[in-house]
Specification:
This protein has about 350 residues and is α/β, with parallel strands linked by helices. It has two domains: about 5-190, HUPs (Rossmann fold); about 205-335, no CATH class. The chain contains 13 helices and eleven strands. The chain has helices spanning about 10-20, 40-45, 50-60, 70-80, 90-110, 130-140, 160, 180-190, 205-215, 220-230, 250-255, 285-295, 325-335; strands spanning about 5, 25-35, 65-70, 115, 145, 230-235, 240-245, 265, 275-280, 305-310, 320-325. The protein has a six-stranded antiparallel beta sheet. Strand 1, helix 1 and strand 2 (about 25-35) form a beta-alpha-beta unit. Helix 1 (about 10-20) packs parallel to helix 3 and helix 1 crosses helix 8. The structure holds iron/sulfur cluster (SF4). Iron/sulfur cluster (SF4) binds near residues 95 and 203.
């Protein structure tokens, strides 16, 4: 039986591709790539993209390999050879990376080609004909990528030419509308596709601004990325930044993420956020940070709050009576730092 690798995010398009190709009598091996920027866990199950892919793979009875591509992805994100999309999404290099890793898996597993749920013209940076060809070429997969949802609109692939799959049964979906895929899902009896639109934090303009800030300051690492996802972000100087929790969950997460050398800010005697300061803080920056903290505290009509802070792992706590930063100053800081 012919073997093929399918890139399975667990979203609607890749689910449809998997369903269609499993009907071609192929032995499918699904692969799911993890990066820190997947949005599926926010949109849906809360269990992450891998769980959506797992659900689809299980329902089709196919093997699933989950590959954490974070390390290689961060290198690509820092300096993408083909540049960024509208925000900080390096889609072409990202696809080349995932395709290369899929090719490795194809070769190791004795598979003959790869399959994706890509739809011609759906995403501006990576799903136009020219870019699709470029990605295939650079990944060493020319003619070996089958996109069953759009195949009839694309040049015949080696699997189609060799009769391994039927070009006749391939589809001709194109464009950004999801309606054809939703209709197809109904026809195929697929009702549960929680990650319909998928998503990537790097396409979010606010988040992208903060990632750019990290890259510009040579600070792109997993702790900093996790911090960006866990609060309001303020760049206070070339080397110092403050991340302020927006809710109880983020406050807990920040407390967990704080490392030795970081400054942990907490309100004293009232409810309010937890914040982490990273980098060298002059007395002026400590003052500004406490005033930002005070701004977000539950001040009961007052315009000040007591804010405590300590440099981890020290136990020595300083407490500062702080007047909250006014909206004008906060807006200036936000404009300077791409903060949310
Ligand atoms: S949107 Fe994000 S995950 Fe998707 S191709 Fe672009 S960079 Fe990669």
């Amino acid at each position: 039986m012919m073997k093929a690798i399918i890139l399975l995010s667990g979203g609607l398009d890749s689910t449809l591709a998997a369903e269609l190709m499993s009907r071609e009598g192929l032995e499918l091996i699904a692969v799911n790539f993890k990066t820190p920027f997947c949005l599926c866990d926010r949109h849906s199950s809360g269990l992450g993209c891998g769980s959506n892919a797992r659900r689809v793979a299980d329902s089709l009875g196919i093997e699933l390999k989950i590959i954490n591509a974070t390390e290689d992805f961060l290198k690509v994100l820092e300096k993408p050879a083909h540049g960024y999309g509208a925000n900080m999404n390096p889609c072409i290099d990202c696809r080349i990376l995932f395709f290369k890793k899929s090719r490795e898996l194809m070769e190791q597993s004795g598979s003959s080609f790869i399959i994706t749920g890509e739809v011609l013209g759906q995403r501006p940076m990576s799903q136009f004909r020219r870019q699709m060809n470029l990605i295939e070429r650079e990944a060493g997969l020319e003619g070996l990528v089958v996109r069953p949802l759009s195949a009839k609109l694309l040049a015949p692939t080696i699997p189609e030419k060799n009769g391994w799959i039927s070009r006749e049964r391939m589809l001709d979906i194109a464009g950004r509308s999801r309606r054809p895929q939703m209709a197809l899902a109904r026809d195929l009896g697929i009702n549960d596709y929680p990650c319909a639109a998928g998503g990537c934090l790097l396409t979010d303009p606010k988040f992208a601004g903060r990632i750019k800030d990290l890259i510009d300051h040579g600070e792109l690492d997993m702790q900093n990325i996790s911090l960006l996802k866990s609060g309001r972000y303020f760049r206070l100087s070339q080397n110092a930044k403050l991340i302020v929790g927006r809710n109880e969950g983020e406050n807990k997460m920040l407390a967990i993420l704080a490392k030795d050398g970081d400054i942990l800010f907490e309100p004293l005697g009232i409810n309010g956020p937890v914040a982490i300061g990273k980098g060298p803080f002059s007395s002026q920056l400590l003052d500004v940070s406490c005033r930002i903290m005070a701004r977000y505290c539950d001040r009961n009509g007052k315009n000040y709050a007591d804010i405590s802070y300590r440099r981890l792992p020290d136990d020595q706590v300083m407490t500062v009576w702080s007047v909250c930063l006014d909206e004008g100053d906060l807006a200036k800081l936000r404009a300077l730092t791409n903060a949310a």
